[in-house]
Write a structure and sequence with these properties.
This protein has about 160 residues and is an alpha+beta fold. The protein contains four helices and eight strands, in the order ββββαβαβαββα. Strands 1-8-7-4-5-6-2-3 form an eight-stranded mixed β-sheet. Strand 4, helix 1 and strand 5 form a beta-alpha-beta unit. Helix 1 packs parallel to helix 4. It is globular, with a radius of gyration of 15 Å.
C-alpha cells in the first residue's frame, strides 16, 4: 500500500464530524466517531450518489473488500457520501438507496457540511480530492492511505496480512 503523505510522515486521522448515519441495516443511528472503533483498522469509502466512477469502480471495490474481510472483527468499513456539489441530487435519501443497491451491510453517513449545503467535513479535514476516495486508517488512528485509486485485491491481501494484536 502506498502512503500519500509527504515524506512518509504519519498523520493522525481527524474526527469524522458526520452527523447523519444509518447502521448496517439501514436504520438511523447516532453519529459515528473513530473512537467507536478504537484498535480497529478502518476503511472509509467516500462517494457521491451521482458519481459515475463511484458506481463503476469505487463501490464494486468496496463491496469486494467487505465480502472478503467481513469476518474480521478488527476491520471496520464505513461509507460516507461526501457532498461537495450537486447538493440537490446527492441527498440523504440517495445515500440510503446506494446502501440498498449494493447490499452493503456497513454503516453509511451523509456529509454535506455542517449546514447541509457546503463542502463535506471529511473532504475538508482529510483533504480528499473528490470521489471516489478511499481512506485507510490503522489501529493507532494514523492515515496510511488516501487516494482515488485503490487496488482492491492488493488491499485485501495487505489487510489479511496485518497483525491485529
Amino acid at each position: 500500500m502506498s502512503n500519500q503523505t509527504e515524506e512518509n510522515k504519519i498523520f493522525k486521522a481527524p474526527e469524522l464530524n458526520v452527523n447523519q448515519w444509518i447502521d448496517a441495516n439501514g436504520n438511523i443511528t447516532t453519529p459515528i466517531k473513530l473512537s467507536d472503533y478504537k484498535g480497529n483498522f478502518k476503511i472509509i469509502y467516500c462517494f457521491q450518489s451521482w458519481c459515475p466512477g463511484c458506481h463503476s469502480r469505487g463501490l464494486p471495490s468496496l463491496k469486494k473488500m467487505v465480502e472478503a474481510l467481513q469476518d474480521n472483527p478488527k476491520i471496520t468499513f464505513l461509507a460516507v457520501q461526501t457532498v461537495f456539489e450537486g447538493f440537490e441530487e446527492n441527498t440523504y435519501e440517495k445515500m440510503v438507496e446506494t446502501q440498498k443497491q449494493y447490499e452493503l451491510e456497513i454503516p453509511f453517513g451523509h456529509d454535506a457540511g455542517d449546514d447541509g449545503k457546503s463542502t463535506s467535513n471529511i473532504m475538508k479535514n482529510y483533504q480528499t480530492g473528490g470521489t471516489p476516495w478511499f481512506i485507510l486508517i490503522d489501529k493507532h488512528d494514523n492515515i496510511v492511505f488516501a487516494d482515488f485509486h485503490l487496488n482492491a485485491d492488493a488491499a485485501i491481501d495487505f489487510l489479511k496480512g496485518l497483525n491485529y494484536e
